[in-house]
Hints:
Blueprint: E1 4-5, H1 8-30, E2 35-41, H2 45-60, E3 64-70, H3 76-88, E4 94-97, H4 107-111, H5 125-132, H6 141-154, E5 161-165, H7 172-181, E6 185-189, H8 196-201, E7 205-208, E8 226-229, E9 233-238, E10 244-249, H9 254-260, E11 263-264, H10 272-291
Parallel strand pairs: 1-11, 2-3, 2-4, 5-6, 5-7, 7-8, 8-11
Antiparallel strand pairs: 9-10
Helix pairs in contact: 1-10, 2-10, 6-7, 6-10
Bound molecules: guanine (GUN).
Amino acid sequence: MSADVIDGKAFAAALKVGVAGQVNILKEKYGLIPGLAVVLVGEDPASQVYVRNKNKSTKEAGMNSYEHRMEPSVSEAELLSLVAELNHDPAVHGILVQLPLPKHINEAAVIDAIAPEKDVDGFHVINSGLLATGGRGMVPCTPLGCVMMLKDRLGDMSGLNAVIVGRSNIVGKPMAQLLLNENCTVTMAHSRTRELDAVVRRADIVVAAVGVPELVKGNWIKPGATVIDVGINRVEKEDEQGVKKTRLVGDVEYDKAVQNAGAITPVPGGVGPMTIAVLLKNTVTAACRQTGVEEPEI
Ligand code: GUN
């Protein structure tokens, strides 16, 4: 049996349509146009692509997009001063500082300078604390997108064994909190986990977010399990003619996992497209909370 392939692209497209509908209602009913400011420091090619896509998607959803580009040599103080300005700008409801930042800038200091209610990435310590304690904060986009797809597939997840491979602040840790909120029994595995294969074999839900190409082997997947692959790794591979080519692979050995899983996200086209769609959704949520307007249903 081959797994159902979870189409993240289609899921994200539908969510974006829903967000555009929310924005329409906010404009018509309250004259409110949600605004997202994205700050890019330096010229990292991958970051430039992300920022371009965020800008385009924000506009397509009918929101205001404010792009701020800074030289790689910019000082931490200058960046903090821009963040302070955006914190005070009432037209800006969401602030995203694209990571990674140049080495001379303290990322944690910059993230924690963002007003928590405008932190649409959900990276601020206040927001991670709120997520951990059941409060109402901003939730990181990638794990929130994963949970939306899981809920759509599985419905009630109470009592399911969820194994998360990877303990990053951006994906692994918030993912654990979100799945706990869904009443899963959550195991966090990581690079030092012993007998990772045995841990993964118990999982009804596997979330791989470790950044190691194809670390999670296909034969570790319990028959019928749902597999969410957050990894995006560019690897070099020779084709049949011996020509070196690069291709994208996830953290899961897809070709084999697809034979065991009940459902699986592909790479690319799985989790990736959801991140921006959820970012737009978070910006609408932030705009509604900041202006005291009830968030329209999607
Ligand atoms: N760099 C890569 N992904 C992300 C993200 O989701 N948010 C931010 N701020 N930077 C990133």
